[in-house]
Amino acid sequence: MKILVINNDGGGFADYLEVADGATVEQLVGQQIGSAKPENYLIRVNRQPCAPDQVLQPGDRVSITPTKIEGAAESASN
Amino acid sequence: MSGENLDLIRYAIWIHEQLCNRRSQVVLPQLSIERWGRVERLHRRLAIAIGRNWASSVATVRRELHDAVRGLRYSLTEFDERLNDDVDSQQVLAPREILCELRALRDEFESVEFDLRHKLIRVTTEPIELEGLYLGPFEIELNLLRRDNGGLAHYRVIARDPQPSRRNSDVTHPHVHSEQLCEGEGQAPIRRALLSGRLYDFFVVVMNILRTYNSGSPHVPIEKWDGISCHGCGDFISDDDYCACTRCGVESCRDCSTYCSICEDQVCQECAARCPGCDEWFCAACMTECEGCSIEFCTTCLNEQQRCNDCHERELEEIEELDEGLAEPCADLASAEA
User: Fold this and answer.
1) DSSP E strand stretches across chain A
2) Do A71 and B196 make contact, defined as CB atoms within 8 angstroms?
3) Cα(B167)–Cα(B224) distance, rounded to whole angstroms?
């Protein structure tokens, strides 16, 4: 099944991914963040909080955002 | 359908249109020439410091140069990304999805305000505290009518219970200066979120930047938030009044530091010395001993033979006396021969 994954750790790209039927949020996030700790990320499915064992549905929107994002002293474009 | 819901739907449609219009416009990214200039100036200063064996100055300037190079690299990376901004790869959300984004903000944040007339979205964070430093809540105000120099919607980060640094009152958060957030690692996800209309992601990323302290690159470090005291007089020093001695590195206010016109550096009182010849202050390293009296003078007050004025005059007197002394025996000898 196809879902939308937004990984804000790095480039912030939104991509459609094919995942196996019955895949859980925890399994998907593990694939995305590798060895990093899930507790260091804000995980939302369809912009709502979710349980790690929540089973993904076709068309789900999963966003993965680090809870710690380092700003800088250099001026941004804004 | 309630009036508020209808307004929100219209807002979502309008945002969608704005985003689609933005995709059709080519924006020339800005190239930061100033950053290269700063690197060049610091490189020259470092060369001077190394040539004169000023160890403390070398360490200070090397750190400043490192920061300047990092800033230059950052701006070049940003410029390159803007140049290759592949807008088409990031689909603009449909109005229905943008509506979901707007509604989700209310679930995620305690305070969300939609100013439909001015096309503003305001989200207020919880009170932010970083390493024990209370900074208060911040309002993230996204202006969908105004664009930044990269063509993205402009936003401000406004302190709602300001606790600015005593060193610089424009800094209300280690990564916020004059209501502008320095995005750092968040720059790319923020830009892509704004390009496609993922407003929920935008606000979440900005919020998480505010919740994070990057000790490697703050406008004002947390440990210096309440200001630093002058090494000389003990008063707190603001950024405008701040001087770091290029010899020993201590921090002083301008009144307690000296500008050396020989090496063009700023030094503290302990690293400065007054020339007894001209009564001006210089850094001690730029003073030279007089060959006659061994007292230190500035280079201007020593002649080519490295003698001060007094020693030079004394020397002239001695030469005159010597001449007179030699002249008398010669005159006696001449008269005797006659």
Assistant:
1) 2-7, 13-18, 41-45, 61-66
2) no
3) 8
* Chain B stretch 130-189, residues whose beta carbon is closer than 8 A to a beta carbon of chain A: 148-150, 152, 154-155, 174-177, 180-189
pLDDT tens digit sequence for B117-155 = 999 999 999 999 999 999 999 999 999 888 776 677 899
Using an 8 Å Cβ cutoff, are B204 and B193 in contact?
Answer: no
Q: Which residues, 6+ apart, have CB-to-CB distance to B12 below 8 Å?
A: B95, B96, B98, B99, B101, B102
Provide ipTM, 2 decimals. Answer: 0.90
> Residue A29: CB partners within 8 Å, gap ≥ 6?
A38, A41, A43, A52, A62, A64
Q: What is the pTM of this model?
A: 0.70
Helix (H) or strand (E) segment spanning residue A30: helix A25-33
Q: What is the largest CA-CA distance in chain B?
A: 137
pLDDT tens track for A19-60: 999 999 999 999 998 888 989 999 999 999 999 999 999 999
**Could you give the 3-state DSSP secondary structure of residue B117?**
coil
* Token pair in block for residue B288: 């030279």
- The strand pairing partners of B308, in sequence order, are none
DSSP letter at B307? -
User: Which residue in B154, B188, B198 is closest to A6 by CB distance?
Assistant: B198
Q: What letter would DSSP give residue B301?
A: G
- Tell me the residue length of chain A: 78
